[in-house]
Design a protein that fits this description.
The complex is a heterodimer of chains A (164) and B (202). Chain A has 164 residues and is α/β, with parallel strands linked by helices. Chain A contains 5 helices and 7 strands; from the N terminus they run H-E-E-E-H-E-E-H-E-H-E-H. Chain A has a 6-stranded mixed sheet. The N and C termini of chain A lie far apart (87 Å). At the A-B interface, helix 1, strand 1, strand 2, strand 6 and helix 4 of A face helix 1, strand 1 and helix 3 of B.
Chain lengths: 164, 202
């Protein structure tokens, strides 16, 4: 007498789920490879303006990011409401930009240095005064290639809305 | 007595673990690529005796602190800026050597001589908002792109935007890439981007 009797009758056999882990792992690997972790925690509001004459910034290893905008709400009590610059994870002053660019350059491969682009991620409500100061500093360290990072506008009307 | 085989490890929870990891990576993934308007800053060195540029070859665009647009001393709406910039760049009012045989503009002697000489000067106030500045930059770049597109169609019967795309990620492009690059340079040379930015007035 056997303990396990073979079932007989009309029951459908259960679908094997043995290959489910394989499928999930496949998805997992895809996302692991495609993931780029957020490098910096934003401490500022960063609502980018919209434009439609865009150039893509692929090659992430050739980009230095500079953020600017009003401090986000939880930092407003300590840093006020004026637009600030954020370099890496920290708030910074205009004069820190030089040092930051140089230290970022030192981290990169020497052959890449001429191709480095500085991406300016500036909040749309920032005054141009701050942006001009940043640009002036960048000129001083000879980081001439810049990119105003923007979102893609859905249509032309959205670009014009920027003016009001 | 027959050897008992080792009991099999229950792999039922493997899927759960994998799901957990999967969800983590799903949440942290940002696949989208940044994009924006690329610009080149001028070197800081002071030029001794700056070249004298005729007033008619300069197209002044001024954005004031209330984000209002003043183009060539006249108030203008942003939606008209692209057309105005195209009319200025494409004017080709010069004669003889300074002429421009591919321009289709009005050949107004009071406007630019040829696209090579035409300079767009962008000025803004310290209190101009960044989004207004980007909108204006966007329109000016659009003007150049429209003219280059026209020339690319005329010379090579190809779309300029498509040509640039092919060069950039042209793994699917079957033609001669070097030749394509040359053609792009050729088109760019017809309408070089000459955008000068003054320091903002305090």
């Amino acid at each position: 007498m056997s303990k396990f009797k073979k079932k007989k009758g009309g029951d459908l056999p259960a679908i094997s789920t043995a290959s489910l882990p394989d499928i999930v792992f496949m998805l997992l690997f895809f996302f692991m490879v495609a993931t780029v972790m957020r490098q910096n925690t934003l401490k500022i509001q960063n609502n980018l303006p919209t434009a439609n004459q865009l150039e893509k910034l692929d090659k992430k290893d050739r980009i230095i990011y500079i953020y600017a905008g009003k401090p986000s709400e939880r930092y407003q009590s300590t840093f006020g409401q004026e637009a600030r610059i954020q370099l890496g994870d920290k708030f910074a002053d205009i004069k820190d930009i030089k040092l930051y660019i140089e230290s970022e350059r030192a981290k990169k491969n020497e052959a890449l240095i001429p191709f480095l682009t500085t991406a300016l991620k500036v909040d749309s409500d920032t005054n141009m005064g701050l942006v001009s100061d940043i640009k002036q500093e960048l000129r001083k360290v000879e980081a001439y290639k810049i990119n105003y990072t923007t979102r893609k506008a859905v249509d032309q009307a959205q670009v014009f809305e920027n003016m009001n | 007595m027959a050897k008992r085989s080792a009991p099999e490890v229950n792999a039922g929870s493997m899927a759960d673990i994998a799901f957990l990891l999967l969800i983590f990576f799903l949440v942290t993934t940002t696949i989208e690529v940044d994009s924006g308007i690329s610009r080149k800053l001028p070197p800081i060195e002071d030029v001794e005796d700056p070249p004298i540029i005729k007033q008619k070859n300069i197209f002044t665009v001024l954005i004031n602190k209330d984000d209002l647009l003043l183009v060539e001393d006249e108030v203008m709406e942003i939606k008209d800026l692209k057309e105005a910039a195209i009319a200025f760049l494409d004017n080709g009012g010069g004669t003889g050597e300074e002429g421009c045989d591919y321009c289709r503009g009005k050949k107004d002697p009071a406007s630019s001589d040829n696209p090579d000489k035409a300079i767009i000067s962008l000025q803004n106030d310290r209190f101009t908002s960044y989004k207004a500045y980007i909108a204006v930059q966007n329109e000016l770049v659009a003007a150049y792109t429209a003219l280059r597109e026209r020339e690319a169609q005329r010379l090579f019967n190809k779309s300029f935007i498509q040509m640039e795309k092919d060069v950039k990620d042209g793994s699917n492009y079957t033609g001669d890439k070097e030749k394509l690059k040359e053609q792009i340079e050729q088109v760019k040379l017809l309408f070089p981007q000459k955008l000068s930015e003054a320091e903002p007035k305090k």
